[in-house]
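Lab manual, section 2.4: Encoding a predicted structure.

Procedure: take the sequence of the chain (173 residues), apply the prediction step described in section 2.3, and record the output as structure tokens. A sample record is shown.
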Amino acid sequence: MEIRELVAKAWEIYEKALELLETGNIRDAAEKSWLAVETMRKTIMVASKIPYEKTERVNLALNVFSKILEILDHEDLLSEYYALNATLHGMAFYEGVLNEDTTRKFIRKAEEWLRKAEAILELASQIDASQLMTLEEEKMRIKARIISENIKILEIKAKENEIIRALKKKLVN
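Recorded output:
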């Protein structure tokens, strides 16, 4: 997707959130607000030369997004991003535990975040963060191998424990 399309999509989603808010559907308004924020996060990454498909893989994308914001000297957006995630997506939508006033406040904060994020797109388009994504993918492959090897170690330890129990039992008998 192109940057302009993504920006338009983020704002369209946010407008839908406001419509839901007006009808009193606060829970869905919170989730739509979060979706708008997520769409703009992906937009910043695409502007930074990360293929859109890779922006959807949150386990990879968030570390790279963090580094992009660091490069752009806009790390404030990251802490706000996580606050919006926790409140709009986590607590309000999934847990349903935020009160109405707090949820409305964070829906408005999402709009502020969207404006700030949109304002750095030109700056983001001046960098090529694709190498950061390549390195993040390599780290994930290494982590997967480590986890696989850890499982093998646990299996070996289980076998050791079986042998120890068998040998102790043999001594007792």
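Check your result against the sample. The chain is about 85% helix and 0% strand.
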